[in-house]
Amino acid sequence: MIEIEIDQEFDGFPEQIAVWEDETPYIIIDKGRRGGGSHVAARKFLKRIYEDYAKYKDKQEAGEVDGYYNIRREQFILRYWCVAPTYSLTSIQRSYIYSALREWGAEGLILYEQPSRNRLWLVPGILIEFKTGVNPDSLVSVGLNGIWITETARLKPLVWKNNVQPCISDNAGWLISDTSPQGANFYDEEIYIFALPTSDKYFPEKYSLHHWNSISNTFKPDLIAEVVAAKRTMPDKYYRRNYEASHDAFTGQIYDDFKESVHVRPFDFIAERYKVLIVGEDWGYTHKGVMILVGITYDDAVDIIDEQAESRVHAISPDKEGDSWMKRAKAWNSQYEIEMFYGGPDEPDHIEAFQYGGIRIVGADNSVSPGIQFVSTLMKIDDQGHSRYRIHPRCKNLIQNKKAQVWKPDQDGNDSEVPEKKTMIPMTRSDTLCIARAAGFRSLCCQRGKRKDKIA
């Protein structure tokens, strides 16, 4: 009989130690950004696996199970999932598991690795599978002994209720969830609410809640400086959500920091001021189509330089003489040195036609909520009354829409943190998707091969 023990000592800050010692079936870790949730979750995950094995071994000694496994035939004694919203996050889960095993001197517990199948086998026949919520229909299993989900609140809405929860319920399995809040979504309504002591749905026999701020993580010395900088530069509501794990819902005006006296200012176009020029393109015909010209300065501020917004304009003109967004894009290309156009991804044929016509264009990322947060952060007004976001007064449509855009209540009148459709017109969507795809925006700034000299 194999004897296996997981080190019962855990070196962490108090909130992590509370997780390590918790025996509740569903452990909910609700923490600020870089709060150390995944670090303790991975170790608790391994600890629980081998606690399960100790129970399995008792059954084996009693002759109730045979302890047989066969990797080739996919026969296991215990089965677990690590679930994340994206493939890259499952890689992080994997790295935390390997790190824990190395820390404990327990690399010998690795029985067999199947990276091509996103599987890891541990001694003595324990299967761990790494899954994503990208395709919820693939999350199917006869029954699991336990699951670790990271960044739970970022999963697609039905992944938990329709796919993941039934897999552990079938086998009376356990859950470890670590995440930062993402506003009013399924996580609050279907998981967090059962762990919250002040909720009328509180279920302490099954759920436990471990909530802490980013600065609780005393094992990251640089984190304090990051938190201080974020408090200075981010809108308060986003700072509290990201670093204090606040569940406060956003209501009313989306861009509540927007002030015409600060954000709308005339300025001359000086090409040397910008390290990159980009354009957001949103298609329309019956409704207005939109082009927004955006300049990124050398101190990473954003200028909205110009706009075009008009209905009944074809993306590509059916005749040579007719107006089209293609002709307008080429005109801007001749007038400005534009690095890239970002087009609405809902019309891939238009994007392909622009590319064929010589326009450098890719589909924009349609993740609206992260985009809104990014633009809101740019709009933050500092102590001197300055902002890193300004709009030229000629952009009248965009200015009006910034003031009008509000959060949409759900069918019960509660806050949904989805933009009201009638205010999220293409004008603002183009602005948001163009600027606010933060990863793409930063990569353009970093990867641009040609640099202009910064003006004095």
Output the keywords.
alpha/beta, Rossmann fold, Nucleotidyltransferase, domain 5, 2 domains, eight-stranded mixed beta sheet, 14 helices, 35% helix
CATH superfamily of the largest domain: P-loop containing nucleotide triphosphate hydrolases
Strand order of the largest sheet: 3-4-5-2-6-7-1-8
CATH class of the largest domain: Alpha Beta
What is the CATH fold-level name of the largest domain?
Answer: Rossmann fold
What does this structure look like?
The chain is an alpha/beta fold. It is 35% helix and 20% strand. It is built from 14 helices and 16 strands. The relative contact order is 0.11. The C terminus is likely disordered.
Give a quick rundown of the structure.
This protein has 456 residues and is α/β, with parallel strands linked by helices.
